[in-house]
Amino acid sequence: MPQSFEKPAHGSGPPTLAGAGGQAVEPSAAELPVARDGFQTELTVSSPFTEFWKKFRKQKLAMAAAAFIILLLVIALIGPSIAPYRMDQPDYNNMLAGPSLQHLCGTDEFGRDIFSRILAGTRISLWVGLSSVAVGAVIGTILGLISGYYGKWVDAMIMRISDVLLAFPGILLAIGIIAILGPGLNNVIIAVAIFGIPIFARIVRSSTLALKSTVYVEAARSLGARNRRLIWKHIFPGTASTVIVYFTMRIGTAILTAASLSFLGLGAQPPTPEWGAMLSSGRDYLTQAPHVAFFPGMAIFLTVLAFNLFGDGLRDALDPKIKG
Amino acid sequence: MKKPVLEITGLQTHFFSDDEVVRAVDGVDIRIEEGQTLGLVGESGCGKSVTSLSVMGLLGDTGGKVVAGSVFFKGKDLLRLSDKEMRRLRGHEMSMIFQEPMTSLNPTLRIGEQIAEGIRLHLALDKKKARSRVLETLKAVGIPRAEGIMREYPYQLSGGMRQRVMIAMAMSCEPDLLIADEPTTALDVTIQAQILDLMRKLKEKKETAIMFITHDLGVVADMCDRVVVMYAGQVMEEADARELFANPGHPYTRGLLGSLPKLLSGQKRLGVIPGNVPVFKQVPSGCRFAGRCSYQTEKCLREVPPLLKAGDRHLARCWQTFGLAGVEAGTADKAGLQ
Amino acid sequence: MLKFIVRRLLGMIPILFVVSVLIFSFVRMIPGDPARLAAGPDASYQDIQAVRAKLGLDKPMVTQYLIYVKGLLHGNLGTSLKSGRPVTKVIGSRFMATFWLTVASMAWAFVIGLFIGVLSAVKRNKWQDYAGMFSAVSGISLPAFWLGLMLIQVFSVQLGWLPTGGFASWQSLILPSLTLGSGVAAVIARFTRSSLMEVLKEDYTRTARAKGLPPNVIVWKHALRNALVPVVTMTGLQFGFLLGGSVVVETVFSWPGLGRLLIDSVAFRDYPTIQGEMLLFALEFILINLVVDVLYALLNPQIRLE
Amino acid sequence: MAKKGMMLVLAALFSLSLVLSGCGSSGNTAASVQAVQKHGKNITVAVQDNFVSMDPGDTNDTLSFSAEKTMMEGLIGFDREMKMVPVLATSWQVSPDAKEYTFHLRHGVIFSDGTPFNAEAVKVNIDRLSDPKSTLKRHSLFAMVDKTVVVDNYTVKVILKQPFGAMLNNFAHPAALMVSPKALQKYGKDIARHPVGTGEYMLKEWVQGDHLTVVKNPHYWRQGYPKLDSITFRSVPENGSRIAMLKTGEADFIYPVPPEDVQAMSGANGITVQHKPSIIVDYISMNTMKKPFNDSRVRQALNYAIDKNAFIKVVYSGLAEPMTSEIAQNVQFFSPQQPYKYDLAKAKELLKAAGYPNGFDTTIWSNNNSTYIKATQFIQQQLAQVGIKVKIENMESGTMDTKIWSVQNPQDAKIQLYFGGWSPSTGDADWGIRPLLGKDMLPPKGYNTAYYQNSVVNNEIQQAIQTADPAQRKAAYDQIQKAIWQDAPWVFLDTRDNIYGFRNYLKDAYLLPDGSLDIQNAQIVR
To answer: Where is each ABC transmembrane type-1 domain found (chain C) (predicted)?
Structure first.
């Protein structure tokens, strides 16, 4: 509740000694939630979301990115139904045609409509991006929490493993995983998810370490809270904002990684209109029909850009250290 | 009457965030004379720090802006100076000490360099001369083995030592005005006493005017010649230190004094002012303290009290000043005081 | 400090050992028959068996590992299955190419990344910030091969200013390092920006302003040094990644580096070469982490090396 | 400095969007680079891969052979049409039982290290290749050699254990390039880094993964040759980069040129792009041991269901020819068959007769390079027209190798359709047919991914290698080709073109049908 002075809390009644709720408040600077320069925006505890939204709204780039992402999600849902052509409909009499009114983004080497394929591919690229990061984030977060909370040999072991994973060239790992599991979209997701695990583990571990020694966790511990409860109720929520930020930023990376796997012929199996695969096949026509690579490339670029800018905005809005 | 070093008139500093405006400093007048130590007292959030930052031109990107008033420093209106001109004054003719000695020093630079760079900049001394000047100032603030300290980093020093370094830094160019923003709050009690002692000595020796910002009236009694009590962006009371402690003219000042522990007074409990310092987004209709005031009347809620004479060189912003101090209802306006 | 470094270097040995076991078994888990690949596309069955025997791949896995470790202890990484040359030589000849490309990319990426990051932090939420962050984020969002091919198209084919590829002169370093560095520059710019924004809110920055220092001294001397600590970690990590070689950039610019060697070796299931490269990467990673820690201590005197 | 770099990036991004926004128009802005006048006699050849070895007997990639051929010569060579021509042997005789091969050697030839070329040198080379303990990659080409006899200083006789009619082709194979015996002794295993032959050029330097340079051999035996001072082979894996190098003049000769780029490049200043039929065939093998491909009607149906001309247009931009036999036109003993015309009605009819009126589901395996990905997609689209639903699995070659060749028992084979290509490096029908369709060549022993066994074919294959008489061999291969074509264990697709580009001033540099480079006689004309 905002405590404002225009409407005194106790109206015009007789003066009382009691303040709000009868609680005595010391006139000391020490424990008040006040910025050091004596400036106080709000005395009130507004909901975290409102607070976040206020900060986020101010970032124009991030807002534009968020709008674009919403558009992408809509396309992912309804894309194929608004596409002018079937994404796998070949037309050998109209191959590699440039953009025109019939084919907004031209046609590819089989005469398929690139615009329709990009629309159909939105769902795939977003799915690959979201699900692979989700898998990586969940596993990485759990490992990071365990590692940071329990410390000692558990920590040492998890961190060494993640070091090794980080040092492992992604390409080799991807080839290995896909060779072992076989080609296909789901295995691409697994391969990309594995890249993300050590990164999330590291980030969550360091925030866990910081949170572990904070007053409120110490307090909860002294009250006899169990480890598991402590981790889930007290530490995990504290790491959540960092995880959300990295989650968003990793989506872009994941989409790019999946595209590079397709580029190396290890990605989605044809004729799946995965953007990376489309870009890769367009590479053969860079001089002759650059639009074949241009439009999927643009789709990847804009999507990754949007997720990165959105992630940047989230971080600025969620990170308590960066104040407006 | 001595010449004023600093004369603040009608200063208004507002903070702009989103669609709101917060009037952190709302029409403050303060005057500090040569060699005088003025205590600026009030709770957190009352606008005392913002006042000092406005004077120093350090509002920076806090979101605050001076929207009205003037700040004359040695005859120049600081608010009309360019950034460059302000920089020439800052750290040279006027300097500042902050509340947090632990974080106010750059952790990656050696102590010697941190003091010397200001000296080199303002006094145009070469490296060698600047160094000896640093040494001199460090000794002056009572730092033992100054030579060694110069080569050390802040983390190697205790809080008290760091605050001495801060003072040395502030005094290194012999400023005419020193603003000390709660310089002892973050320190242990024993260290506090040492630092206050040091400041008093320096003040006597260099005759520097000091604006001493604190919420601790005990420190004010110890250090200051004159006191300004601020509340919710406004000056509530202004008087010489002795007068203020003897005859507090404002219920708020009384409250503050009541919360001060007195030795041998037999007091069982410290007094408490209920509530918090309010924040204003719109101009309130009545006295800003009314909500927390136990002497509140209807008039208090309706009309803003002006600063009324409450005694010799003594002003208080209260309709009922007389009732408190036993002094005749002040008809004298502020001008009459000066 | 010296003690710290020595201890860390000694600590490397068990890690490298574990890495060697992991790699050794991992590469053999990947399906594929090096003997068949080495023997060639139309080799007869007898040829393949002969090659298998020659390469020692007919021996049990444990024996193969023991032979490998024995070689390692003598500084011998084995012989490439594909070219028959010692792996140390194969890798050695490629390392310098990757090294120079990495150094050139990191150098300009660091300078530009820092510049954009500082500009964005100082001009927060102004157009400079938006432009800086937009170009930086573009840097990580552009598929590298696309950027590379376009640079070749413009600067080599259209303008004729720079060679299309190869590792011959300093001119030939420009385009690949631009391509490789753009992503790194972006990462550095973002880190610098957020880190500097935090530091600019610190009390000691206010102290510096209270001293009357001009803004550029405050940013570059007082704030940046403190802001650099996380940036240096990130830069170190990126340096490590780049030293592993970039398959895409090396392919586009015909750069004879480690990335292409790795992809070729994987395609050929050239076990000893893959193992050798992986050991090198692990070593590089550990060394770079060490260098980063030492740099920390130099940047922030408060961190003492234990 | 920092700003400048940023500007470069921005400029590049900007121009990139300009270049690409012009799509729709031909896209190829004519290279502004002027036709480069060649100074000096040093040329650069940009190739796709890295060189692996310079030891001919231990080489299995066409690219390494191409470089070896500039430094070394064999007894016999191939001309532009893959016809055998004398090189270090001036003439030869073969015994009627195809067991004894006698070569008369050229006089007055020395290796570039000064060692004389004579019968002893030939014996050293053949002995090295045929040694049963040899682990050379090309040992199998000479495994049937019993012994090599020095008749006189310039006459040598090679005796085989059993008749092998295609043996002359093996002598013409680059694996039989002659290496200096002195060098072999001196360098031992390291001969792969230090090739010494009788060829036009000598190795100057070889930087692994980057380039290999050969320089003029002053002692070369043929008057007036070589015509150049040096040739540098540079490995440029990216197609676009290779083309860019040719346009800028950084390279004088490039190969391969992707078919997609031929049209756009042909117009460019000072550049010639050539395409000639190769001996590489593209086919889909069908597992003839398993349903549904155990029925020849199904296999024929697939042949009718795929439009080969459209295939060539889509996959090779028109730069290939439909197959008219299971071996290419430039392979010895080629005999053309009646093509399976694109005929969906007939395909459906055959499927119906075989009991698959609504088609069936199947899987196709192939490599994962972009051409193969494109080809399998096209096949998928075509077969969908007759109700055959194809699942595509493009795999990295090592992975696919394991899936195909780790199968010991044919019954366990999971392979259904397999799309692949084959190039018989000897240029002879035997190596074009036997490894792919012979009965002893089922995986893991050979490359018979169709698991095809036909007793008529097998008999004739045996007949054909029992004799060196061309007429008898031709008769056998005529029969074989006819039988296989009828039986259709494959979908017969196409013979690819070799495509290469060079700057106009370069003459006498070309690709042989087997894909190896013939550049040792090249010259610059002004």
So the answer is: 95-296
- B45 touching chain A per CB within 8 A: yes
Across the B:C interface, residue pairs with CB atoms under 8 Å apart total 76
Nearest in space to C218 (alpha carbons), one of B91, B15, B164, B48: B91
pTM of the entire predicted model: 0.78
Q: For residues D36 and B106, give the distance between their C-alpha atoms in angstroms, rounded to a whole number.
A: 61
- CATH code assigned at C243: 1.10.3720.10
Residues of chain D contacting residue C266, judged by C-beta atoms under 8 Å apart: 398
Number of domains in chain C: 1
Closest chain B residue to A26, measured at CA: B272
Query: Chain C contact for A322, CB < 8 A?
Result: yes
Residues D331, D297, single domain; the answer is yes
**Which residues are within 8 A (CB) of D454 and not within 5 positions of it... i.e. 6 or more apart?**
D437, D439, D483, D484, D487
Distances (CA, A) of D285 to D297, D447, D492: 15, 10, 9
DSSP state of D140: G
The structure tokens listed for B66 are 């001076």
> How many Å apart are CA A276 and CA A266, to the nearest integer?
10
The total number of structural domains that make up chain D? 3
Predicted pLDDT of residue D175: 92
- Residues C208 and C219: their CA atoms lie apart, in Å, by 10
Of C146, C240, C259, the CB nearest to A297: C146
- Residues D290 and D246 both lie in one domain: no
The answer to whether residue C62 is domain-embedded is no
Domain that residue C286 falls in: 87-299
Mean pLDDT score of chain D: 88
Write the pLDDT tens digit of every residue in B108-142.
888 888 888 888 888 888 888 889 989 988 888 88
pLDDT in tens, D393-409: 988 888 888 889 888 89
In sequence order, the 6+-apart residues with CB closer than 8 A to the CB of D171 are D74, D75, D76, D101, D103
**Edge-to-edge strand list for the sheet holding D155-160:** D89-94, D100-105, D155-160, D145-152
Q: Is residue C137 part of a domain?
A: yes
Amino acid (1-letter code) at residue C14:
P
pLDDT, one tens digit per residue, over D313-369 is 999 999 999 999 999 999 989 999 999 999 999 999 999 999 999 999 999 999 888
In this structure, the answer to whether residues D254 and D308 fall within a common structural domain is no
> pLDDT 10s per residue in chain A (324 long)?
333 333 333 333 333 333 333 333 323 332 223 333 333 333 445 567 777 787 788 788 889 999 999 999 999 998 778 888 888 888 888 888 889 888 889 998 898 999 999 999 999 989 999 999 999 999 999 999 998 888 888 888 888 788 777 767 776 777 788 878 877 888 889 988 988 898 899 888 888 887 777 767 777 777 777 777 778 777 888 788 788 888 888 888 888 888 878 877 788 887 889 888 888 888 788 777 888 888 998 898 899 899 988 988 887 787 655 443
Interface contact B91-C226, CB threshold 8 A: no
* One domain, residues D332 and D388: yes
**Residue at C31 is within a domain:** no
CA distance A114 to chain B (A): 44
Q: Which residues of chain C have pLDDT under 50?
A: 306
CA angle D478, D480, D486 (to 5 degrees): 105
Which domains are delineated in chain B? Answer: 4-224 (3.40.50.300), 250-334 (no CATH)
Clarify whether residues D215 and D182 are in a common domain: no
| D509: containing domain | 2-51+201-272+499-524
Residue C220 inside a domain? The answer is yes
D492 and D357 belong to one structural domain:
yes
Whole-number pLDDT of residue C202: 82
Kindly state whether residues D136 and D222 are assigned to the same domain.
Answer: no
Q: State whether D310 and D444 are in the same domain.
A: yes
